[in-house]
Amino acid sequence: MGLMESIRNFLSIPSSLEEVVKERWKAFEDGTYRDISRGHDEIAWRVGGGWFESWFQGLEQRTGQSLGRRLAHAAVEHGEYMMGSGGWDVPSGRDPASWSRTKLRWETTGLGRFRLLEDGDETRIVVEQPASGPICSGLLTAAWEGATNKRHRFLWSESAGEGLVITLTQDDVQIPGPKSLSPSWKDQGPGADLMLESNDEMWLDLRSDSPGQWSIMGERKMFLHRDLILRFEEYCLPYLDGIHEGRGEDYTWNGLDEKRSAWWTAAADSARVRFVAEGHHVLVRNPSDWANIARRHLSYHGLGGIESMEQIDDHGGVSLGFFTVFHPAIASGVLLGCWERAYGRNGRASISYEGGRVTLDLRSSREIAA
Fold first, then answer.
1. What is the pLDDT of residue 7?
2. What is d(CA 19, CA 254) in angstroms, rounded to the nearest whole number?
3. What is the rounded distance in angstroms from the CA atom of residue 213 to the CA atom of residue 210?
4. With the C-alpha atoms ordered 45, 49, 53, 58, is the resulting torsion angle positive or negative?
5. Are residues 42 and 183 in contact, defined by beta-carbon separation less than 8 angstroms?
6. C-alpha 230: how far from chain center
7. Over 60: is that where the pLDDT of 87 sits?
8. Number of neighbours of residue 299 by Cβ within 10 angstroms
């Protein structure tokens, strides 16, 4: 069943974009959003466009790498995988104006709106109000390759006046289709229950600002599937040579090799800095307060939820067991930012696994005398 048919089962057409967005993306009790067009088996991160861009720039700074091209190629692979594994319809024909289901998917994801500029020796497609240049470029390339059944090289340029312009040139290279990727950690899986009582709270002040663009509480949002982030991580790993900025010493990832550990550290520290800069007030009186903290700062965005909390020292140290987590590095960075906002000093984070489930320990970065 395609996305359009799924939505029609819930709604009478026509419906507002806001209602269609809420029907596609369902909040679950384990702190995730799941995509109804994928049968609830794909979790996604609801992230602000500015938040993601800031996090991405921080990732580049800490790794000392330019990562835009790698994110774009990860998006191509992600788009092809999603179309090939069911749930996403493959567009047909060389006129994107006829790709009604692809356009609806873009609008409900919050990516922007696209149209054809020219189709000759080179094909040029413009995206108006793109949520992310590399992601939009990669996903449109995957859609064009699916519609034409041909591989293409692609370049993109972005300006305030013209928007995002993607230039595609047919390429006879043979590239095998992408394989499924699974995270190295365990989640509860698709057995989690839908969030019912407070689902409206998750969508408070949702507004359609323009075709392909919607916001919550005045902040533009988009959804990113975990599959995209996992593929982006894999594209980055071969080129990493350590951490060049930030607080790499404050993160420990048990069981990871050197390169993956570097990527997770960069991802976590960038998320920590972005969170702290927002100036949230975080109050911790006892370990049980972390349930509400995680709900507000993780689950609201689809980054996961915690099921256990245990004090591990007398200076704010706490061990948090995850129910489900979008990505341990991003979630750890956010929660370390919460810890530092609560206690007013630098902390450190350590991830370990119990039965494959993720456990995060947060404590002061320096020993405190008793």
1. 47
2. 42
3. 5
4. negative
5. no
6. 9
7. yes
8. 26
Write the burial class of residue 130 (CB in 10 Å: 0-12 exposed, 13-18 middle, 19+ buried).
buried
| pTM: predicted TM-score of the whole model, two decimal places | 0.93
Residues 140, 154: Cα–Cα separation, whole Å: 10
| Rounded Cα distance, 321 and 199, in Å | 23
Query: Cα(first)–Cα(last) distance of the chain, in Å?
Result: 61
Which position has the token pair 């390429």?
Answer: 171
Residues paired with 350 in a beta bridge:
252, 361
Contact 322, 331 (CB under 8 A): yes
Amino acid found at 260: R
Place of tokens 């029907």: 23
The three-state DSSP-derived secondary structure of the chain is CCHHHHHHHHCCCCCCHHHHHHHHEEEECCCCEEEHHHCCCCEEEEEEHHHHHHHHHHHHHHHCCCCHHHHHHHHHHHHHHHHHCCCCCCCCCCCHHHCHHHHHHHHHHCCCEEEEEEECCCEEEEEECCCCHHHHHHHHHHHHHHHHCCEEEEEEEEECCCEEEEEEEEECCCCCCCCCCCCCCCCCCCCCCECCCCHHHHCCCEEEEECCEEEECCEEEEEEEHHHHHHHHHHHHHHCCCCCCCCHHHEEECCCCHHHHHHHHHHHHHHHHHHHHCCCCCCCCCCCHHHHHHHHHCHHHCCEEEEEEEECCCCCCEEEEEEEECCHHHHHHHHHHHHHHHHCCCEEEEEEEECCEEEEEEEECCCCCC
**Model pLDDT for residues 315-361, shown as the tens digit of each residue:** 999 999 999 999 999 999 999 999 999 999 999 999 999 877 899 99
38-57 pLDDT, tens digit per residue, is: 776 789 999 999 999 999 99
Tokens of 23: 């029907």
Backbone phi, then psi, for 269, in 5-degree steps?
Answer: -70, -35
Tokens 């993780």 appear where?
298
